[in-house]
Amino acid sequence: MKFLFIQKWHKKIGVYTALFVIFLAISGIALNHTEKLKLNTTYIKMDWLLDLYQISPASEPIGYLSSNNWVIQVGERVYFNNKEIINDVNKLIGVVNVNDIYVIAYDGKLVLLTNDAEILESLGSAEGVPSGMKAIGYDNQNIIIQSAHGYYQVNLDILEWNEHEFLEANWSSASEITESLKNNVLKQYRGTGLPIERVLLDLHSGRIVGVWGIYLVDLVAVLFIIIAITGIWMWWYKK
After folding, report:
1. What is the three-class DSSP state of 93?
2. Reduced to 3 states, what is the DSSP secondary structure of residue 136?
3. Structural domain containing residue 218
4. Which is more confident, 13 or 116?
5. Which DSSP string do the residues of 32-72 spell out, in sequence order?
């Protein structure tokens, strides 16, 4: 009687947990081959799942218009019109166009860009970019930078930085982004914010539905243990 009772519940628990076993096995195998399957570089596009993970920038996009082209910061990423060009920006300072080259200023760095969004060069403190940049502008085809320590007239051809106490310039300032462009860059931002690998990891651990998901996975693990113990017991009993 005792054997039949345990056998009955062993079968029931086995059926209930079978789907979890299959899923954990498949997801585990997939996660072991993340790079080959490109799970870390393939992104989720479903809006409901992006909303679940709250994949949205912390603040509204900020845009600078120069020669009919936009440079826009969304979160930590910067876009040239619709193309992402930088992905580690804290604060975008501005952009100017000099001799058909776009010079983008951010976080103590300057990035030189073509009209086709091709990065020509990236300059930092090692190349003389002053710390504490506050603004970027131009005057008579000269790049002017305002920093915490003064004003600089920049010759990028020879990387010459001439310091001044004060300089006038046409300063780059933020502009209101068109709704269509804002929607496009926000869609791009969300569309490259959630890799499949992260979702699989969260499904595997139960974290995708918060703390209750973790408890559910814990419960399934306990049921696995019960199945193993009852299976061993029944095998021993029959012997």
Report:
1. strand
2. strand
3. 2-39+204-238
4. 116
5. HTHHHHTTTT-B---HHHHHHTT-S-SS--EEEEETTEEEE
The answer on 81 and 167 residing in a single domain is: yes
Query: Residues, the chain, total?
Result: 239
Q: What are the tokens at 192?
A: 């490259």
**Looking at residue 239, what is its pLDDT?**
61
pLDDT value at 6 more than 70: no
How many domains does the structure of the chain reveal? 2
Q: Assess whether 136 and 162 both reside in one domain.
A: yes
**Which residue is listed with tokens 């959630």?**
194
On whether the CB atoms of residues 109 and 144 are closer than 8 A, the answer is: no
Which range of 29-33, 169-173, 201-205, 219-223 scores highest in mean pLDDT? It is: 169-173
Number of Cβ within 10 Å of residue 169's Cβ equals 19
Tell me: do 30 and 68 sit in the same domain. no
> Is residue 45 helix, strand or coil?
coil
Separation between Cα atoms, residue 231 and residue 109, nearest integer Å: 64
Burial grade of 103 (CB within 10 A; 0-12, 13-18, 19 or more):
buried
| Residue bearing the bigger pLDDT, 102 or 233 | 102
Identify the three-state secondary structure at position 134: strand
Whether residue 167 is contained in a domain is answered as yes
| Cβ atoms 102, 71 nearer than 8 A | yes
pLDDT at 105: 97
CB 89 within 8 A of CB 229: no
Q: Are residue 15 and residue 115 in the same domain, yes or no?
A: no
On whether residue 54 sits in a domain, the answer given is no
Return the CATH number at 116: 2.130.10.10
